[in-house]
Amino acid sequence: MTVTQPKPRRSISAAIGLFFLAPFIAEYLLGDLPITLLIALVLLAPMYGGGALLIREVVRRTGRGWPSIFLLGIAYGILEEAFTTQSLFNPNYLGKNFHLLDPAFIPALGIGVWWTIFVLTLHVAWSVCTSIAIAEALAPSRNTTPWLGPIGLSIVTVLFAIGAVAMTRLSYAKDHYLASHAQFITAAVLIVVFAVAAFLLPRSKPAIASMPVPNPWLTGFVTLLLGSGVMFVPNRWNWWAAAAVFALDAVALVLILFWSKSKAWTPLHKLALAAGAALAYGGHSFTQPPLIENVSLTVARAGNAIFTLFIIALIALAARRNTRIRTEAA
């Protein structure tokens, strides 16, 4: 007798949600883009959303977990900042004289250590991990299964490639800056290293430890504090700024790795981590001037408030869905 295995449950709506949630968090919740340019979300989605969705799908298809998402997030961040925007190397990124590379600058490498650690943290922690965590929490019954079939995955791959090429061309057209061959080669090697490492990790296993973990509210508060610390460390501290961001990253990683080994760790805790990070972005947005000129402060702050309230609403909806799932399973 042949037993037919049930087909995995797909979720196109969850995939579309992540496709647009990633650029929303990365650029709008952060405060870089104002509400008057919300239509640009469609243009940003192929790169940001396509990248986050590809990472999520590949990891879930191969049965791996968050450590693999983390490593692929680093690879994604290097790809965007070394090739697409070249902000890791361009001393006058966007032509706005931000002097991003000045703090902890290493002349031999042509990079600023603070900016490298900071911007990669933004991509890994927020653009990728926070976006995926919230999107999965909104679909609790399918949070570890693939959302796309072969055709859908192929479409997203093509969109991501188109988005990366388009953003690269737009960035180059801004000031025609090109990094050195050595910088490009080094960045490419690092992308391969982190991507390969993501698939050398063992597949995710059930937690076996019985250690206690903080309740979700406290978990979220801790990540809110750590995330806010990353966002508000003054880069004028130079090497100390780089060390501070690195230390905050390390503390967050150690805590998450420790807590997630416990059987008491639940999807609500994962959502709390993402919620704390998202609210750190939302709080920072009220201090961030828009990168686009001719936007009044009143309009910018109104947009910040709307975006923050929207992410809070999404988090509340996700918490409600996860609570209902746990109640029904009890």
Structure description:
This protein is mainly α and 330 residues long. It has one domain (12-329). The chain contains ten helices and two strands; from the N terminus they run αααββααααααα. The protein has helices spanning 12-29, 41-61, 66-84, 113-137, 150-175, 181-200, 216-232, 239-259, 267-285, 297-329, and strands at 105-106, 111-112. Strands 1-2 form a two-stranded antiparallel ribbon. Helix 3 (66-84) runs antiparallel to helix 6 (181-200), helix 7 (216-232) packs parallel to helix 9 and helix 9 (267-285) runs antiparallel to helix 10. The two termini are 34 Å apart. The relative contact order is 0.16.
Q: Outline, from the CA principal axes?
A: globular
Structural class: mainly alpha
The side-by-side strand order for the widest beta sheet comes to: 1-2
Count of runs of 4 or more consecutive helical residues: 10
* SSE string, helices as H and strands as E: HHHEEHHHHHHH
* N-end to C-end Cα span: 34 Å
- Helix fraction, binned, reads 55-70%
Indicate how many domains the architecture comprises: 1
Number of strand elements: 2
Low-confidence parts? 1-6
Main sheet record: 2 strands, antiparallel
Strand content: under 5%
**Mean of pLDDT:** 93
Oligomer: single chain
Query: C-alpha Rg, in Å?
Result: 20 Å
